[in-house]
Amino acid sequence: MRYLSCLPTELPSKTPSWYEVLAEARVGIELLDGLRLKRRLHNNLPRGDEHGKAHPVMLLPGYGASERAMQMLAKRLEALGYVVRQWGQGKNHGAVHKLVPPLKARIREWSAELGQPISLIGWSLGGYIARELARDLPAEIAGVVTLGSPVVGGPKYTLTAKQYVKMGFDLDAIERDIAARDSVPIQCPMTLIFSRVDGIVSWPATIDRVTPHARHMEANCSHIGMVLSPKVFRQIAKALADQRESLAN
Questions:
Q1: Are 216 and 21 in contact (CB under 8 A)?
Q2: In the prediction, which pLDDT does 154 show?
Q3: CA 11 to CA 33: how far, in whole Å?
Q4: Is 51's pLDDT higher than 80?
Q5: What is the mean pLDDT of the chain?
Q6: Is the distance from CB of 243 to CB of 82 less than 8 angstroms?
Q7: What beta strand segments (E) does the chain contain?
């Protein structure tokens, strides 16, 4: 479980192949591993309630998923002492411009209530949304962890590309808009967890090449398994602990 010191140089150029999509079937094994290791999963992991104060975390699901998909991750984080909230938006329908405003209000309210900034963990599209929230709310966001999230191109290099085209979206225009947004830096600590065997998002699109302090961790798991795999959970716990330590310093 280490951060990459040298980023992969491959650039996104295509959506995942059908071979990669079929490989997503490994998620069943990842789920079984998580259930089998349930009792030992939290051994030797840094806790979220160190020094007597529980750290707050909000979870953001991927495209087409709801809070239910994040329940296992939520329970694991709560067992480590974190205070966890779901994003409260129901199913992620993919219309980012409609999802962001209520999320900003919810985050401002929760952060003010707690008197401290909160961390965001976003899966797939949820991770892209988490990054944009952190970009706009630097005082309220303590850190971001993304799980297989497209930080380049939006849906262009994902399995949902054709669906977005059918809905009338211009994928090239979205890619340009995302690149333009990068002119506003994300200030908080940020960890991007990616997998080269991701069958939903082309993995080169999950690499942040413009944020100097972005840290990357590689996971050998399916895209769906990002929120189920015990190995990825250990990476998440490590990333959250490092982000909190970075803030403290």
A1: no
A2: 92
A3: 32
A4: no
A5: 90
A6: no
A7: 56-60, 83-86, 118-123, 141-147, 190-194, 215-218
Query: Rounded distance, CA 239 to CA 245, Å?
Result: 10
Q: Which residues pair with 146 in a beta bridge?
A: 122, 192
pLDDT tens per residue across span 202-247 = 999 999 999 999 999 999 899 999 999 999 999 999 999 998 887 7
Helix (H) or strand (E) holding 163: helix 161-166
Distances (CA, A) of 92 to 115, 118, 181: 28, 21, 21
58 - beta bridge partners? 85, 120
Task: Confirm if 238 and 81 have CB atoms less than 8 A apart.
Answer: no
CB atoms within 10 A of CB 46: 14
For residue 5, count CB atoms less than 10 angstroms from its CB and return exposed for 0-12, middle for 13-18, buried for 19 or more. exposed
Quick check: pTM over 0.85?
A: yes
CA distance 87 to 89: 6
DSSP letter, residue 229:
-
Cβ atoms of 222 and 246 within 8 Å: the answer is no
Strand-pair partners of 119: 57, 143
Kind of pairing between the strands at 118-123 and 56-60: parallel
Query: Count of H helices and E strands in the chain?
Result: 8, 6
Under DSSP, is residue 234 helix (H, G, I), strand (E, B) or coil?
helix
- Pairing type for strands 215-218 and 83-86 reads unpaired
